[in-house]
Each structure stands twice: as structure tokens, then as C-alpha cells.
From TrEMBL:
One of its GO terms (biological process) is retrograde transport, endosome to Golgi. PANTHER family: DENN DOMAIN-CONTAINING PROTEIN 5A, PINSTRIPE, ISOFORM A. The keyword Phosphoprotein applies. Belongs to the RAB6IP1 family. One of its GO terms (cellular component) is trans-Golgi network. One of its GO terms (molecular function) is guanyl-nucleotide exchange factor activity. This is DENN domain containing 5A. Residues 929-1037 form the PLAT domain.
Length: 1259
């Protein structure tokens, strides 16, 4: 899969390269590749050189000597003697230029005898020196490890050939002295390589193998080597789109074919190999990590495996493309690149000796580590599941099994692997036809491996019958021109790729609807690209099935998704679309036609891939009928004597004949009119090019680079200045990413609060907020691991915090928390000072949470807590103010030591203080949290004489505490209980004991001792028999107080939540400001409006319904105003409450029923309901007063949608006539009717009441 592509080339290969030992410059140790000198000399690595490359240069793909040299032999030269295995190795590599375009390389490495006497004696000398150094080891006993040191084979498994097994008789000295010039033959590695514009891996492998074979076989090849190399460089074209091409190698034909523009892009690596190495489950996890742009490190001792896995994973992402650093083979000299604080996909070569634990990786908080050789993968924490994962795995497994590939990855013992492979499932099918029902697969392989047993079960379950299993040869009697293995590879590849591509076409079938087309012209759209949202994420997510959200909400935030949508915006018609987009859109249209009935209805129904067969047919057609055949190799115009060579040695070729191509042949002539050539090329490479509109090329390239300052490391010999420059780019990139992230989070959050104020539409959901915070945590981890001196633990941020904690605790030997008093500015009205600001204390809170086990988890929890407390910027500033510590932990170039950038970064984080996050409280719902409760009683009226025993019960969105006794003398308690969530109500009361059981309470304050959130529950009323409304308990509704301590460094205030109830209801008689009917109607309207809005929000974002019902200006208050309007003032000193009026009405209704006044049925049912509720509330065991009872009645009436009926009843009740003035609202029919209509709007909502509101009422 290429993103860009060296557009000038229409030749199959651009360069032929030879790398190896330069005898002129001798043995140069390769310090960069990090091999140590304790190794015996044969084990060390030495510098390799590019010995020759042909032609000298081509304009469209300048030769990059450093990169090619590094990647052909990433570990440098290796030496062997005759006792070692010397198997040739093939690997491919990729060179990505800074603009993102790619060139592929295919390298074949083999061993040649060293003929240079100087080199042999240099090796002997190195051994003498080495043995002298090792001499003292001889006298220290070590366990004999056999000849481990003497087998310096590249891949481990080849060294299993019988070697001299060290008998104890061989002295240790001899074992070290494993090269003796007189006795041993020395071999050195050499590499031949093709550099090509497109990745035809199978074809290149064949060409190189045949060239190598020509050199090693006893008979010389039919023509000189130059002829074949000239042919591949100058006479073999790239196959055109949708065509196949045949050309000649040294010993046999080579076939390659290229997909048409309507098919999936070219991909020529064997996917089956990746599934073999990792198994379907692991591949899918790795795939998920790649889609979410998590850092990925592949680890293997085989270069080809690194390349195969990297290319396979990125190919399966179609139609998306990996946008970040992509280095499938990381040369040893570039190891510092693992420090890169950006998403990357890199492959690291293991020497096969060290295990994973020895690997020092700079950051692992967000790393996916894939140990390919051991079938093992380490994932970052909280990786979301890929949608429909199980059905997806099953569908892939069915395809693999039909080709005889085990979905579990390979059966670990290599011999059973070979048997399983050699044993074709087709034989099983034919065996069944012969009547031997016990198929050999069952009997023999089940004994062999339990994996197969699981497969068998899967086969039974999925109903793939093994008779259907195919073998391309007997499948159809078409003569195929390429070998069978290769056709099987293409068939398996296309089937698996179609299954993967189908997931995205299903998932994003209606993505176009959500693309936000820019309103302005392209130029200005482009210059504001950073600020623009190009996709309506919220609407798209709201259509998705719930289980998809954790994955999708993170995926929509990635660079690859943004780039995909950008390219969609930048092209208007099909002509302009780049290849992947055109193919994808065509598939989406097809799906849309199939689902005509409900085009946009997304279901989580799993739909399998349906277009496998046609995709396969296209390939079979191409390989059965070859479209083009290239010129055959022929004798070149060489001088006599040229082109001879010694058997077993790859010769220096004749550069004069190879340096230039033929002057005339039918397709080299294309240099004719430039314009025509350009058109032609566009057609030919349409699938790999961004088309030729230069302007657009620039846009896309820049759009690509927006989120990533650095796409690719430059593979060159790195001077300190280059490294410094690279690191500087990283620092700038991190700062830019921080700016964009904070902005994005604020816009989301502000967007939501703006909605609460009535502006705009609501967008963010709980899932999305979590996604954004998780990605902020990931950014912080990347910043903290940039330029670390020594890595400790998996989380760089947490390890820095621990160092800080340790140094602080040494300095302050004062007992914890009793240091100098913190910033206790007392908050006027509340008698509860805010918590002391302490970074260490916040860390301790996190350390005390037993549920959080890992360092990464602790760091994330600490970030969430700091965000909720609005202290993130301040804490990090304090952490970084310990310059000594920062110097000790970080290298000079680290982000955290670039002062200006660090300041700007902290400033960006400061902007989070403008909004309220509950990202700690809402996520850690099961942890234990200490709360502090303080009851503030009125100073005025003899509070000190109070004799009864008070109690409280605190309720929150997640739980409630139950009754807690409060000591009478202090009136405060601290208790610990499971996280209550945001607090909503406090029930409080007393037991009415003692002489003076009357108590006037101002308010109750409750503080969460971890987050510091303080809630105030105003009361302002008496509790006691015979005073106020005779209540012994009250339900108080509260709200979060905004701390006034930091107003100076606040950037802007968020709107306060619903105001807390002043509850100065007092008695009807002293209602200070009588409202007029207009104001009362408005009050009811507002209260109802609040409730309606509440239900129109997505569930995750609704605030407290209790506040809307019982809070200040809530529904209870509004109806209270209705009933108080025009209430007749009673005689002096006697208080009358609304409840008294309701009780009288109840008595009237009950007597009316007994008198059997004949009224319609409706009236009777309403009366029955009303009386039933009144009785239930009056009979409750709770000591709530008359106003409390009224509140309970309104809440129950709202819950059961009865309020409007009751209002109608009461308006017509004779009692009303007695107790209300004529001007009263309740007597005005038109006003009552409009009131009833307003209350009816509550009927469509399902109102659930908090338990504390209706405790003790059994209705």
C-alpha cells in the first residue's frame, strides 16, 4: 500500500544495488549498531558499504546511499566460519521520503568466502586481543553454555545444524578462540538488492534468488549476469493497472499482476504469514491499536517478519492510511527514535538472545508491543473493543481455515506445523469421498495439537464443511501462469482484505451525510484548517449502536480519519478522487443500494462480506491469461573477457553497460511531449498518486502534516545537530498538539454549557468526554517521556511524581498534612474553609485507592482528579518548579526543559479551569471517599440550648449514606463511604428528645475530602413540634459551591448551576413580596420548561431532576406561589398552611363520595387518586411538616402525571371559595385552564424520583 509514489518511473525497478565488505577500508566496527565489545569478534558487527549501484541516478527517485546502506544490512556485516549455518536470507524494506512518498527495497543476503588476507589476519588479531581480555574469566567458574558463543548465526533456528558439541575436554580457552586462520574458512555477508517504485515482493524475491543461484551453481548461467540485470532495470516495465506481466529471470519466468483502479490497491506480501505468526485474536488487537494511532513497536529477529506484519496491518486499514512515523525496520543507529513522542509504527530487530525485559523503552504508557517470534502482544490499558469483534474474528477464521491456515496462529512446534501445512485440507475432502469417514484431520492432528480441536469445534459451529475447502489447482481447470503457491497467496490475501474492507464500508456506509463541507473557498478553508471541524462527530455517534461508541469516539479523533475526510472535501467529482477514496465510495454506494429500505438506520447486525468472489475472479483472470510479456534478456555489447566470474562470488558488474538504458525501445520513447507523458502516467498510476492538480497536492500534503510535525526520520548518518533538530521538531509538535487538544476539549465543554444557557445544539456525550480526557492523559505521558535520562516504570509522569514526592517528604519531615497552613481563605458565608491545595496529598489519595493497580492507571487518575479540582496546571507547574529534579531526570533537549514551550504548555492547561469537569467522580464510581458534614445552626435563637439528637442522610447521583448520627455539641462529622457521585439532597432531622427540642438550621455543608467539592444545602427553617410547620425532618436540596478563592487566576466563570433553594418559605402570612398572576404564571412556565429541557438532553448529560422539582424556583416552589396567591389571611397569631387547605378539600371530597353525589366517572377516579395520595402522605411514619408534605404531594403528582387533574378538581371545590379571595389565581378559570395545559406537557416524560423524596410513602 503506498501513499505517494515516485511518479516518474514506469520501469519495474529503479536500481540494482550491491552491499558488503569494502576490502579497501577494511574492518570498521559499527559502534552505532550498539553491539558491545565483550562479544567475540565473529559476533560483532562491522560497517557495510554500498559497493555499487546501477544506474548512477534516476531523476524521479534520487539514490539515497545512507538509507539504502542502512536498510539492506541494518545490522552491518556479519562473519561466519565453516561450522556456522550460512543460509541466505531475503527481506524487504521501505524508504519513506519526507513528503510521505515511498520506495521499496528487496534485499537478498548471502555469505561469501573472504579472500582478502588482510581481513583474515585482522580477524585473527582481534581474536588474540579478545582472548587475552577474556583470560581472567577462565578462572571464574561459569556454567558451560556449550558452543553458544561460537554459533553466531543470524536467525536462531538455523544454528540447530550439528556443530562441534563442546565436550568437557575442550578447554575453555579453545572455546573462545573460535577463529584460527590456519584451520578455519572465514565468510562474510553480502547483499544484492532491487529498489522499485511498487512493492512486487514475490517477483523481486524470485529475480534475486535466481541471480544468486546463477552465481553459486556449478554451471554458468546462459547469459552473463549483466544481461539479466540490464533487462530488469531497463526492459521490464511496470504492469499497467488491471494487467499482468511476464518477464524472464535467469532460470524461469516471473509473473506479476497489478489490480485495476476499481479493486483494492496493490499488496504483495503474504497475509497468511502474519496470521501464522500472531493468530487472529492478536492481529485484531494490533489492528485496533493501529487504527487508534497508538505507538506500535514490532519486535523480531527476522527483518522480513517485521516488514510483513507492518505492511499487512497498514494494508488492512483500507480506506484509511497510517499518517505518522512509519519505519518497519529501524536500523540500530536510529534507536533514539523510540524516544519520539508521536504515534509511530516501528520494527525493532532482536538478536534472539535478550528477552523483552532487557528492552529499555522510553515510554510504555501508551505502547503496543508485539513480540512476533513469541506470538505475544502487550497492549496499552483501556483499549476499546473493535465493534462486533467476535463475529469479525469468526468471519476471518472461516476464510483462513478454508486455506488450511490455523486462526490460532501457528502450532508452535515447527514439525507439526510442517505436517499441518503439507497436509492439505483438500486431501481430507477427497478422502471423505473414498468413504473413509474418520478424516485424517481428526485422528492424526487432534493428537498433535489441542489448537486443532478448537478449530474443529469452530468448523462445526460455523458450518464450513471441509469439502468446500478449495485448492486452486482442482478448483477450476484454468491454466494458471504463476505457481500455485503464489496464486493461493493472492486468493487468501484478497479474501481477508475484502473481509476487513467490508467492516469499514458497513461501519461508515453513510459517512458522507456527516461530512461538513466548508462554506468558504478552498484557500481560506485551508488556512483555517486547524480550527475547522470537518465531520459532525456528535451526530454520527448518536446514530451508532451503543457497543461501538468506545472505539468509534476515539477513532474519529485520529489523524487518519481527519485526513480521509479532508481528501473527501478536497475532491468534488470522481475524476479528482484519489484511488482509495474512489474504490471506497463505490463500495459504499453499492451497500446503500442493497439497504434501500432504511439507508441510514444503523444496526449492530453483523453483515458478512459478499463481494469476495468477484475480487478473486479478477485475479484468476489476470494470471490465467498474461496480458504483457517483456523483452527477453539478450547479450549486451560487452568487451571480450567481460562478464566472466568466479563461482561462488557475486562479481563487480560492468558499470559501463549498466549505467544507461537503451536509447530506443517502444516504451522508453514516452519522453515525447511532456504533457502527454504526464497524462499517461496519471492514468497508469492513478491508484498510487495524488493526481496532478498541484494546488491540491499541496493541500493534502499540508493537511497530512497538520497534526504531525514530523512524518519520517531521515535515514542518514546522524550528527548531534540533526538529532537536536529532530527533537526540536518534536517539542514544537507536542506544543501544537497540546494547543489543539485543549482547544477541542474546551469547545466541546463550553458548547455543552452554552446549551444549558440556551445557545446552540448539544454535542458532547460522556463517552466522548472520556475519550478526550484519555487522549489528554496520553499526550501528557508522551511529553513526560520525551528525553528521559533513565526510564523507570511504565508511566513517565507517575515516576516523576514519585521522585517529587520522595524529595518533598525528605525535606518536610513535618507530619503529613500539618505543614504550613495552606491557602485557607475562609469563604464568607460557609463555616467550612476550602481544602488545602497540596499536590502530595492528591497523590496520596490516588495511592490509597486499592482498585488502581498500575502506574499508568495512577497517573491517569491523578490527572483526572487534578482536572476536577481545577489544579492540573498549578500542580504540574509546582512539579516542574523543582529544577534540580527535572535536570536529574531529563536530557537537555527534553520538552520539559524547554522553558518557553513549557510555560505555554502550562498556560494552555490553565484554560481548563474555565469549565467544570467531573471526570474523577464520574469514572471511579466504586471507590471509598471521605466526606465531611457540618450543620450550621442559627446563632440567633438559642441554638446552644438545643437538647435533641440530630441526624443526617446524604444522597448523591450514585448512592446514599443511610442515617448518620451527628454529635450535638460539634454538629460536624467526617465519614467514609462509597462514592456518592454528585450530591443531590440531604435529609436531616432530630429525635425530639429533651427539654428544648426546637432547632433553627441555616444550612448543611457537605465536602468531598478528595475532590474538595463543597455542597451547600440551605434550610433556614425550624425543626420541632409546635414551631414553624411542626416538622421534625426536612429534605434539603443543594448545589455545588463555586470556590471564590481563586477568582484572581480564573480566566472566566462558568454559569452557576441552578440556584440553591433559599427555602425562606416561612409562613403564608409574611410572604414579603406578593407576586402578581403574570409573574406566577411565568414561574410555573420556567419550572416546567426546565424539566422538559432536562429530558431532551442525552441521558449522560442530564443534571439533577431533584433540583428542578424541589430546588429554588423549581416546580414545588412555583405551585406553592399558585396556591398562596389570594389565600385569605387568618386571624392573628394563627398560621395557615397550604396543606391545611388540601386536607380540608380532602375531607370535602370524601364526604361527597359518601353522599354519592352523582358526578361523572372521570371526576370520581380523580377524587379517589387525590384522597389516596393525601392519606398515604399523612400516614407516613416520617415527621415531615406541612410544607414537606406539600412537596411530597407535588413530586408524586408529577411522577404519576396527575397534577393537572388535581388542579382542575381543586379549582371547582367549594372549599376554595371559602379560603381564597376573589382575585385569587385559582378562581380565575382562564388562568387555571392555561395552568392545566402547561402541566399536561409533563405527561410524555417518565419522571423517576430520588428515593429520599418519597421515603416512607408506599405508593
Amino acid at each position: 500500500m503506498t501513499t505517494g509514489f515516485s511518479s516518474g518511473s514506469c520501469r519495474f525497478a529503479d536500481y540494482f544495488v550491491i552491499c558488503g565488505l569494502d576490502t579497501e577500508s577494511g574492518l570498521e566496527p559499527d559502534e552505532l549498531s550498539g553491539e558491545n565489545f565483550e562479544q567475540s569478534p565473529l559476533r560483532r558487527t562491522f560497517k557495510s558499504k554500498v559497493l555499487a549501484h546501477y544506474p548512477e541516478n534516476v531523476e524521479w527517485n534520487p539514490f539515497d546511499q545512507d538509507a539504502v546502506g542502512m536498510l539492506c544490512m541494518p545490522k552491518g556485516l556479519s562473519f561466519r566460519t565453516q561450522v556456522d549455518s550460512r543460509e541466505p536470507q531475503f527481506h524487504s524494506f521501505i524508504i519513506t521520503r519526507e513528503d510521505g512518498s515511498r520506495t521499496y527495497g528487496f534485499a537478498f543476503t548471502f555469505f561469501e568466502e573472504v579472500t582478502s588476507k588482510q581481513i583474515c589476519s585482522a580477524m585473527q588479531t582481534l581474536y588474540h586481543m579478545h582472548n587475552a581480555e577474556q583470560y581472567d574469566i577462565l578462572h571464574t567458574p561459569t556454567s558451560p553454555q556449550g558452543l553458544e558463543d561460537q554459533r553466531h548465526s543470524l536467525p536462531r533456528q538455523h544454528s540447530q545444524h550439528p556443530t562441534l558439541h563442546a565436550s568437557p575436554a575442550i578447554s575453555r580457552l579453545q572455546r573462545f578462540n573460535s577463529y584460527d586462520i590456519s584451520r578455519d574458512t572465514l565468510y562474510v555477508s553480502k547483499c544484492i538488492c532491487l529498489i522499485t517504485p511498487m512493492a512486487f515482493a514475490q517477483a523481486c524475491r524470485k529475480v534475486l534468488q535466481q541471480l544468486h543461484q546463477a552465481v553459486t551453481s556449478p554451471q554458468p548461467p546462459p547469459l552473463p549476469l549483466e544481461s539479466y540485470i540490464y533487462n530488469i532495470l531497463y526492459e521490464v516495465p511496470l504492469p499497467p493497472s488491471g494487467r499482468s506481466l511476464k518477464f524472464s529471470g535467469v532460470y524461469g519466468p516471473v509473473v506479476c499482476q497489478r489490480p485495476s483502479t476499481a479493486e483494492l490497491p496493490l499488496f504483495d506480501f503474504a497475509l497468511s504469514e502474519m496470521f501464522d505468526l500472531l493468530g487472529v485474536e492478536n492481529v485484531l488487537q494490533l489492528f485496533t491499536c493501529a487504527l487508534l494511532e497508538i505507538q506500535i513497536l514490532l519486535y523480531s529477529q527476522h527483518y522480513q517478519r517485521l516488514m510483513t506484519v507492518a505492511e499487512s496491518i497498514t494494508a488492512l486499514m483500507f480506506p484509511f492510511q497510517w499518517q505518522h512515523v512509519y519505519v518497519p525496520i529501524l536500523p540500530a543507529s536510529l534507536l533514539h527514535f523510540l524516544d519520539a513522542p508521536v504515534p509511530y509504527l516501528m520494527g525493532l530487530h532482536s538478536n534472539g538472545q535478550d528477552d523483552r525485559t532487557k528492552l529499555e523503552l522510553p515510554q510504555e504508557a501508551n505502547l503496543c508491543f508485539v513480540d512476533i517470534d513469541n506470538h505475544f502482544i502487550e497492549l496499552p490499558e483501556d483499549l476499546p473493543q473493535f465493534p462486533n469483534k467476535l463475529e469479525f474474528i469468526q468471519e476471518i477464521s472461516e476464510v483462513l481455515m478454508s486455506f488450511g491456515v490455523s486462526p490460532e496462529g501457528y502450532l508452535h512446534s515447527s514439525d507439526s506445523q510442517a505436517k499441518y501445512r503439507g497436509f492439505r485440507s483438500v486431501d481430507v475432502a477427497s478422502d471423505k469421498r473414498n468413504g473413509n469417514l474418520a478424516s485424517p484431520l481428526n485422528s492424526y492432528l487432534l493428537r498433535e495439537n489441542e489448537t486443532i480441536a478448537r478449530l474443529q469445534a469452530l468448523v462445526k459451529r460455523t458450518g464450513v464443511s471441509l469439502d468446500k475447502v478449495r485448492d486452486s489447482a482442482c478448483d477450476n481447470n484454468v491454466r494458471v501462469q504463476c505457481d500455485e503457491e503464489e496464486l493461493r497467496m493472492h486468493q487468501l490475501n484478497i479474501q481477508v482484505r475484502e473481509v476487513f474492507a467490508n467492516r469499514f464500508t458497513q461501519m461508515f456506509a453513510d459517512y458522507e451525510v456527516f461530512v461538513i463541507q466548508p462554506s468558504q473557498d478552498k484557500e481560506s478553508w485551508f488556512s483555517n484548517r486547524d480550527q475547522m471541524q470537518n465531520f459532525d462527530k456528535a451526530s454520527f455517534l448518536s446514530d451508532q449502536p451503543e457497543p461501538y461508541l468506545p472505539f468509534l469516539s476515539r477513532f474519529l479523533e485520529t489523524q487518519m480519519f481527519a485526513s480521509f475526510i479532508d481528501s473527501k472535501i478536497l475532491c468534488h467529482d470522481d475524476e479528482e478522487k484519489e484511488h482509495t477514496l474512489r474504490v471506497f465510495d463505490a463500495r459504499v454506494d453499492k451497500i446503500r443500494m442493497l439497504n434501500v429500505r432504511t439507508p441510514t438506520l444503523r444496526t449492530s447486525m453483523y453483515q458478512k462480506c459478499t463481494n469476495i468472489e468477484e475480487a478473486e475472479k479478477a485475479i484468476e483472470m489476470r494470471v490465467s491469461k498474461i496480458d504483457h510479456t517483456a523483452l527477453h534478456p539478450h547479450l549486451l555489447d560487452m568487451k571480450i573477457g567481460q562478464g566472466r566470474y568466479e563461482q561462488g562470488f557475486f562479481p563487480r558488474l560492468q558499470s559501463d553497460v549498466l549505467s544507461t538504458g537503451p536509447t530506443s525501445n517502444k516504451w522508453a520513447k514516452r519522453s515525447a511531449p511532456a504533457q502527454w507523458r504526464r497524462k499517461d502516467r496519471q492514468k497508469q498510476h492513478a491508484e498510487h498518486l495524488y493526481l496532478d492538480n498541484d494546488q491540491r497536492e499541496k493541500y493534502i500534503q499540508e493537511a497530512r502534516n497538520l497534526g504531525t510535525t514530523i512524518r519520517q526520520p531521515k535515514l542518514s548518518n546522524l550528527s548531534p545537530s540533526v538529532i537536536a533538530q529532530t527533537n526540536w521538531k518534536f517539542v514544537e509538535g507536542l506544543l501544537k498538539e497540546c494547543r489543539n487538544k485543549t482547544k477541542r476539549m474546551l469547545v466541546e465543554k463550553m458548547g455543552r454549557e452554552a446549551v444549558e444557557l440556551g445557545h446552540g445544539e448539544v454535542s458532547i456525550t460522556g463517552v466522548e468526554e472520556n475519550t478526550l480526557i484519555a487522549s489528554l492523559c496520553d499526550l501528557l505521558e508522551r511529553i513526560w517521556s520525551h528525553g528521559l535520562q533513565v526510564k523507570q516504570g511504565k508511566s513517565a509522569l507517575w515516576s516523576h511524581l514519585l521522585h517529587y514526592q520522595e524529595s518533598k517528604e525528605k525535606k518536610d519531615a513535618t507530619p503529613g498534612g500539618l505543614g504550613p497552613p495552606g491557602e485557607r481563605k475562609s469563604d464568607g458565608g460557609s463555616a467550612m474553609p476550602p481544602l488545602k491545595v497540596s499536590l502530595i496529598q492528591d497523590m496520596r489519595h490516588i495511592q490509597n485507592i486499592s482498585e488502581i493497580k498500575t502506574d499508568v492507571g495512577k497517573a491517569r487518575a491523578w490527572v483526572r482528579l487534578s482536572m476536577e479540582k481545577k489544579l492540573l496546571s498549578r500542580h504540574l507547574k509546582q512539579l516542574l518548579s523543582d529544577h534540580e529534579l527535572t535536570k536529574k531526570l531529563y536530557k537537555r533537549y527534553a520538552f520539559l526543559r524547554c522553558d518557553d514551550e513549557k510555560e505555554q504548555f502550562l498556560y494552555h492547561l490553565l484554560s481548563f479551569n474555565a469549565v467544570d469537569y467531573f471526570c474523577f467522580t464520574n469514572v471511579f464510581t466504586t471507590i471509598m471517599i471521605p466526606y465531611h458534614v457540618l450543620v450550621v445552626s442559627s446563632k440567633k435563637l438559642g441554638g446552644s440550648m438545643f437538647t435533641a439528637n440530630p441526624w443526617v442522610c446524604v444522597s448523591g447521583e450514585l448512592a446514599e449514606t443511610g442515617v448518620l448520627q451527628v454529635p450535638r455539641n460539634t454538629l460536624e462529622i467526617t465519614f467514609e463511604c462509597q462514592n456518592l457521585g454528585k450530591l443531590t439532597t440531604v435529609q436531616m432531622g432530630h429525635d425530639n428528645t429533651g427539654l428544648y427540642a426546637k432547632w433553627l438550621v441555616e444550612c448543611v455543608m457537605v465536602r468531598n475530602e478528595i475532590t474538595g467539592h463543597t455542597y451547600k444545602f440551605p434550610c433556614g427553617r425550624w425543626l420541632g413540634k409546635g414551631v414553624d410547620d411542626g416538622s421534625l425532618e426536612r429534605i434539603l436540596v443543594g448545589e455545588l459551591m463555586t470556590p471564590s478563592t481563586e477568582n484572581d487566576d480564573r480566566m472566566c466563570r462558568t454559569p452557576p448551576m441552578q440556584q440553591s433553594p433559599g427555602m425562606m418559605r416561612r409562613f403564608v402570612t409574611i410572604s414579603p413580596n406578593k407576586l402578581n398572576t403574570g409573574q406566577i404564571q411565568e414561574g410555573v412556565g420556567e419550572a416546567i420548561n426546565g424539566i422538559v429541557k432536562h429530558f431532551h438532553k442525552p441521558e449522560k448529560e442530564r443534571g439533577s431532576l431533584t433540583l428542578l422539582l424541589c430546588g429554588e424556583y423549581g416546580l414545588v416552589w412555583a405551585l406553592e406561589q399558585v396556591f398562596q396567591h389570594g389565600f385569605k389571611s387568618p386571624r392573628l397569631f394563627k398560621n395557615v398552611f397550604i396543606w391545611d387547605f388540601l386536607e380540608k378539600s380532602q375531607v370535602y371530597f370524601e364526604s361527597a363520595e359518601q353522599r354519592e353525589v352523582t358526578l361523572d366517572e372521570n371526576w370520581q377516579t380523580r377524587v379517589r387518586h387525590f384522597c389516596r395520595f393525601m392519606r398515604a402522605i399523612n400516614n407516613t411514619s416520617r415527621n415531615i411538616g406541612k410544607d414537606g408534605k406539600f412537596q411530597m404531594l407535588v413530586c408524586l403528582g408529577a411522577r404519576d402525571h396527575l397534577l393537572h387533574h388535581w388542579i382542575a378538581l381543586l379549582a371547582d371545590c367549594p372549599i376554595t371559595a371559602q379560603m381564597y379571595e376573589d382575585i385569587a389565581l385559582i378562581k380565575d378559570h382562564s388562568l387555571v385552564n392555561s395552568l392545566i395545559r402547561v402541566l399536561q406537557t409533563l405527561q410524555e416524560f417518565n419522571i423517576t424520583l430520588e428515593a429520599s423524596l418519597v421515603k416512607g410513602v408506599g405508593i
